Amino acid sequence: MSGTSADGVDAVLAHFQGRASRPRWQILASHFRPYPADLRDQLVAAGQGTPLASGAWLELAEAVTEEQAAAARACDPLGRASLVGCHGQTVWHRPPSGPRRGASWQLLQAPLLAQLLQRPVVADFRAADLALGGQGAPLVPPADEALVGRVAGWRALLNLGGIANLTLLPPACGPDRHQPVRGWDCGPANTLIDLAVQRFSQGRQAYDADGRWAEQGQVDETLISRWLQEAYFTGAPPKSTGRELFGGADLERRLADWQAKANAEGRAAEPADALATLTAFSAAVVAQDLDHGPRPLELLVAGGGSRNRMLLEQLRRRCHGTAVRPLSALGIADNAREALAFALLAWWHAQGHPGNAPSVTGARRACVLGVRVEPA
């Protein structure tokens, strides 16, 4: 799996057995392979709409596929896997709007990957849900229910990648036990923060390690309150998004707001204050969404943003009445959750088990996800 941050490829070697809806599972190995810096820069630019020549798109797809293959080999050097599930790299996501159907583009050459690994590959996971009128995202919530399970009350899982996506699992007992699983993209998690760090450091830093830079600044709650009233954040699920909405242009707009407010107040516009405000904003979009639904007992946090101290502190401060703790406490490491989910989706494809949740994506019905490709 490689997500919106486009920092590299997370791979897991996993074993599944038993009932499809609640399998027994084990992570046998995991590996993270960072993208080369020039490849990451190209992917981030492409994800924000930078035009590319046809030949450049072809070379980009080949490079992504080769990186995915290298990550799989490093995770499974003995070739024990019987099936490979690969999400590819999202470069553009267009949710449905009015009469217009949704579309989503994950860069990958699945036949090449199957040939490089000499294993069948399941890829193109979003297309079937999109064809049924769904958002094609998020796809992880049904896997969360199968892998993590329910507790006595509502349980939430949060991935803090480039985008913050949320899963709400109904209780195992009580009147809400018949409710469907819920999930949606809340908004930006690391996309705006990372882009701001790169800008303020003149490219010397790719991200705010541990949130240390943001911790030196002051949060502007007035700006956050204004931003939370924007259409995406007040819209009801199903909803999904990506770098095409929360990318460089969006950052420039928010930094202009921040600069204008500092000028009006006659104070210096310090980068640490901007990073503190953007970090708190990422937590605030999640907290606002939780305020509008059933209150979960706990929020299990994964993804790169879970290592940002300030972001976690802001989540704990804003998510009133909900215990915030790392998903790793349940045995799923920060960088393994989504890779494990897509491994499960590939296994579900082989089992003929539906992988989407219409309650999450808005699709007309549940369906088997992915397209299987055999090595030549």
Describe this structure in words.
This protein has 376 residues and is α/β, with parallel strands linked by helices. It folds into two domains: 8-139 and 340-373, ATPase, nucleotide binding domain (Nucleotidyltransferase, domain 5); 149-330, ATPase, nucleotide binding domain (Nucleotidyltransferase, domain 5, 2-Layer Sandwich), CATH 3.30.420.40. The chain has helices spanning 37-47, 54-75, 110-117, 127-131, 140-147, 191-200, 212-215, 221-227, 231-234, 248-264, 271-291, 309-318, 337-351, 358-361, and strands spanning 8-17, 24-34, 84-85, 89-94, 103-107, 121-123, 155-160, 163-169, 182-188, 298-302, 323-326, 371-373. Helix 12 links the parallel strand 10 (298-302) and strand 11 (323-326). The two termini are 23 Å apart. The model has no long low-confidence stretch (mean pLDDT 97).
CATH class of the largest domain: Alpha Beta
Structure summary, number of beta strands: 12
CATH H-level superfamily title of the largest domain: ATPase, nucleotide binding domain
The tally of domains stands at 2
Element-by-element helix/strand order: EEHHEEEHEHHEEEHHHHHHEHEHHE
- Structure classification: alpha/beta
Percentage of residues in helical conformation: 25-40%
The spatial strand order of the largest sheet comes to 9-8-7-10-11
Please give the CATH architecture of the largest domain.
2-Layer Sandwich
Gap between N and C termini: 23 Å
Number of helices: 14
Strand content: 15-25%
* Average pLDDT, all residues: 97
Globular, elongated, flat, extended or rod-shaped: what is the shape? globular
CATH topology annotation of the largest domain:
Nucleotidyltransferase, domain 5
Poorly predicted ranges: none
Query: Could you tell me the radius of gyration in angstroms?
Result: 20 Å
Largest sheet: 5 strands, mixed
